[in-house]
Amino acid sequence: MPVHLIRGGYANTYLIEDGGSFVAVDVGTSWAAKKIYKYFSDRSIDASSLKMVTATHFHIDHVAGISRLVRLFPKISVCFFTMVGDYLNEKEKICLFSPVIWLTGLLPVVMALDNHIINTGAALLSDKTAIPLPLLRKFLPSHYKAECILDEGQKIPPLPHWAIIKTPGHTPDSVCFYSRDEKTLISGDTILNMRGSGELNNFCANPNAIKESFKKLLTLKIRNIYPGHGRPLLNLDGLENVTQ
């Protein structure tokens, strides 16, 4: 059940392979979507094996490439955490950061990338649905139909060996994907690795909530962390060395 890193956006994009099925997580730009297509094409993998695309949270740098991915893989399902449905139905404001604060947090991430110029160009051609301006959501629609059905404690149909862990803090809808068999965590923006040894994200809508989420993750056996930003952390002995 390997995890494949796709570098093609502001955030890391991952392909989870479970049996004969693949699920894409955090497709942040149209370029990331194209790189997934190239990944399948170069390896002669049947496109129908990419069953689903999802996200660790509904921020633009994690979901803006989904429309392009759906055009490249027309049979793919788009599924999010249940709370995202309330945002899409205008019941909640998931993108809680003001534009100024959001840009202040995003800029260091952008500048840390070797390909930030290409990423910026790709972002301009990607969905704008998840920018932190909820009032504009009517005017910045996505080009796909999403099912907001994923939740902690429920099975993920294409990923029988993976589970969702709710980890609010960075945003209320933040989740991680966890494989107990592989002791592997896809941490989104809950745990990052911008400094080289892993750190709990301090760019949060709710700093107290993310600390509680980290305590929750400490109860899991974790050997590999695939963060939303920064390089994967492999062959760990738990989360003890992650900076809080």
Report on this structure.
This protein has one domain (3-227): Ribonuclease Z/Hydroxyacylglutathione hydrolase-like (Metallo-beta-lactamase, Chain A, 4-Layer Sandwich), CATH 3.60.15.10. 27% of the residues lie in helices and 21% in strands. The chain is built from seven helices and twelve strands. It has helices spanning 30-42, 60-63, 66-72, 82-88, 99-111, 116-124, 207-218; strands at residues 3-6, 13-18, 21-25, 50-54, 77-81, 146-150, 163-166, 175-179, 184-188, 191-192, 199-200, 224-227. The strands form three sheets. It has a six-stranded mixed sheet. The chain has a four-stranded mixed sheet with strand order 7-8-9-12, with no helix packed on it. The model has no long low-confidence stretch (mean pLDDT 85).
